[in-house]
Amino acid sequence: MLVAAAVCPCPPLLVPAVAAGAAAELDALRACCADALGVLAAARPDRLLVVGPAEQAQRGPYPQGTTGSFRGFGVEADVTLGSATGGTAGERPLPTSLAVASWLLESVRWSASPVEGLGVGEPLAAERCLRTGRDIAAQPGRTALLVMGDASACRTVKAPGYLDERAAGFDAEVARALGAADIAALAALDAELAQELKAVGRAPWQILAGAAEGTALGGALLYDEAPYGVGYLVAAWS
Prior knowledge:
By secondary structure, this protein is of the alpha/beta class. The chain contains eight helices and nine strands. It has one domain: Protocatechuate 4,5-dioxygenase, Chain B (3-Layer(aba) Sandwich), CATH 3.40.830.
């Protein structure tokens, strides 16, 4: 049973060591992410599942204790999934999205429940995402979700995907749906358009939609900005 969810973006720049001199630019975003994690802790979950985008070789489950690193971004910063609650390290390192999530959890000293991870692929069909979410919610106990993923990367000419006039409208609809906990709207997101706009959060958001079916969760949008031409959204469902 899904009892709460937090939605956060997953840029490595969320980690101050990676952002370096620009770290202060995302202080407000970090604060909103911490607030969303507070909502998860308040729900008293039996387990927390972190869901985030991953490359093909990194897809699948990650047990608590799996380690990740930001060394590929030029800093010697390591993280552990659920480090405060123990566990056994997995064989594969965490994908970047789950490493960012691990940093967020460490930053708030998460100890409310055990933590697991799930890396999902951007091409995953909507119905498969919804089914995955339903399967997550059907597991026994009180489950909370930390859903990682960015909106479009095409909001400005300097964005990673350059400017696409469709990006602002797409992001606005996702922001509205996350703030309203509108499951139907999330389930209806156009996977092809999301891929064209480089919105890597689409599959994780649709997994959330599947997991939230049949619940009475309400949503709150905590952050909606595109500081580097990439849409960053933070929401809390409880």
